[in-house]
């Protein structure tokens, strides 16, 4: 599908099929979602209906097979388009150079003819195929006007080259317009190439999500699988034997691995870290939680109706009107007995109404706007995203990695100054003890503690033990030390810290109330240190939230973290709306609820768990330091992960849309004024009849004006 007119035709074709109750066709992802009664129709019948309308529909096989076939077709089409664009640009430049830069020489016209022919009939073949196919099926689109303009300019030039006496006998000059035909093809191909590059990002996200499903997709429910350390789960199931930490960040977005023991659930796409697990299979393939996320991403992408570009909407009327005016012009001149002048005026109308300025009005502004955004570290994937950003009035933000840095760190600590042991009369630095123990663990919290103790001495540790879900233990110079949470403390000491060390106990309750993770260093006698770990807010988050709220935008924070931590972060950041313990599907549903309330929603996230919500939102914004899936699913990526760039994006969107509207205004004003003059309305009063070469120059000038106006966006 090439434009909004194509989307409308495919939708109407499918809606007309018996048994179809709902259709949603997406230009961005080239997909159609159809609700139908299987007793009244079949995918094969729907496919035939679409083919009869001049398009094609892939329905055979699984989603994965259809995606693979569609991707191969897309790659072939893109390579062909890329090749045609390069050839057209090179040859069109040569035609323009020879036509405008060289004086007449013998055979000049035939040289131009030879260069223009492959541009028109080879590089521009897609316009003729799609344009005349639309006419054959009773409709018209931008391809129709492009094909008609190119063919008229080309054929009229060939006629003038071979039969110049038809005009010279009337005292007129037989002009050639090969440069118009070739430049039209080159400009439109460039726009198509840029559009195809942007559209491909949607299928890339689906392919990467499918790549997370692991290797156990042939298993059946009820079977038992052994998942070794480092392997990715390919099924949803229940642990029946073994203990290990599992990285579920792709689902929860939280950096801390989850402890999995007998009875715990595991999900496809998550990664087993450090222990073998025997898992009883519950769900496989399309029934897994990950598959559900994939479907949500696909549905969200497909359900978002593309913003129909102004040019495409008006083109449905513009094309037949221009064709009708050109024919009417010829008939009026013919009635007046002026066949030659009538033919000249008809061609002039078609040449001057060439859609170059209309075709350039939007893409040049979008290219300039996207380039401006890139210079600010804002990567915008398509024109639709840049257009809609100005309308956003609600922003939903993930917590971890979006508002916060995305990695835990030690924020507070309370220590006993030093201890002594019977085995070592010298003072033993508590920090060295803690560092030595944590240095032997690869847990994210242990890494954060070690980062806070840089420069400490790594002491020998005997009998090191990882106590899964609770902490670690090891013997340093004859004393057994423990590092872990309150559950481990209670297990070893049997008492809360109040009975062992009131000084450190006084810090625990406030830190827990603030949503921090508490880690303690102790032995079998007393607690020696308490540390609070937190994922800090980014330096720019508070100011960014304040600026967005000042613009009247509602801010919402969703997180899989606990309620206390979530509300603490929201309070510090100044976010009024917060929801904790949120799963990926809950995030997408929350976005839907805001949309149902009439909001234009932007989702800001960085993890795979945000991908469904990113796709569901009117505008998905990914953090540059986030996962590839989030970046591929979102329409905008902020390279620096700085939330203040969202305000820049909204301002850029407003400027770009204003420039686009100015371009379209001048393009249409040009046509409204130029077409009547080209038709000869001034001839009865002044004897002035616009020459086609002047019409071509006017067409080129209109394009230059549009491009120049768009370049203002670079400043």
Summarize the structure.
The protein is an alpha+beta fold and 715 residues long.
Task: Describe the structure in your own words.
This protein has 715 residues and is an alpha+beta fold. The chain folds into five domains: 4-60, Alpha-Beta Plaits; 218-283, Distorted Sandwich (Calcium-transporting ATPase, cytoplasmic transduction domain A), CATH 2.70.150; 304-377 and 651-715, no CATH class; 381-398 and 537-639, HAD superfamily/HAD-like (Rossmann fold, 3-Layer(aba) Sandwich), CATH 3.40.50.1000; 409-534, 3-Layer(aba) Sandwich (Calcium-transporting ATPase, cytoplasmic domain N). Helix content is 53%, strand content 15%. The chain is built from 27 helices and 22 strands. A seven-stranded mixed β-sheet has the order 10-22-21-20-11-18-19, with helices on both faces. A six-stranded antiparallel β-sheet has the order 12-17-16-15-14-13, sandwiched between helices. Strand 18 (554-558), helix 21 (563-573) and strand 19 (577-579) form a beta-alpha-beta unit. The longest helix is centred in the N-terminal third of the chain and has 39 residues, at 63-101.
